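Audit log entry. Action: structure prediction of a protein-small molecule complex. Ligand: zinc ion. The ligand was supplied as SMILES and no pocket hint was given, so placement is left entirely to the predictor. Protonation state taken as written. Sequence taken verbatim from the request; no trimming, no tag removal. Recorded inputs:
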Amino acid sequence: MTTYQFIGGCHCENIQFEMDLTREANTYTPRACDCDFCLKHGASYLSDAQGKLVITIKHESDVNKYQQGNKLADFLICKNCGVLVGVTSVIDGKRYATINSKAITNNSEFGLEKRASPKKLDAQTKTERWADIWFPNTVIKILSE
Ligand SMILES: [Zn+2]
């Protein structure tokens, strides 16, 4: 299977990621979440349930794992440079994640953002949806605490 590799991360490179996508970049439409938190960041999310994601954190103590709303997921924000890199959640013992498309290097190849409104979903429906569409088996490598 052909895969399309992308890299990205926060501005100071404390949080970096590599992702393998299974389709051409322009077929992905990043989801612009309309909750108050994501609007303030201008975040829009991209993931591939058939793809692969590895996140590498240089110093974990410089990462803020912010929780909001139902507190089901961790928003990974660099404490040093303030960039929101992505969101991760452990569902039924497996780690899923999605990436803020704004943190991807060369993100102009992707399709246009589409508005998404997960805040209207209840907690159960939300986690089921994440397990369907986020990167499964996400690896988070922590190089130092
Ligand atoms: Zn940073």
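Audit: result stored. The mean pLDDT is 95. The chain has one domain: 4-144.
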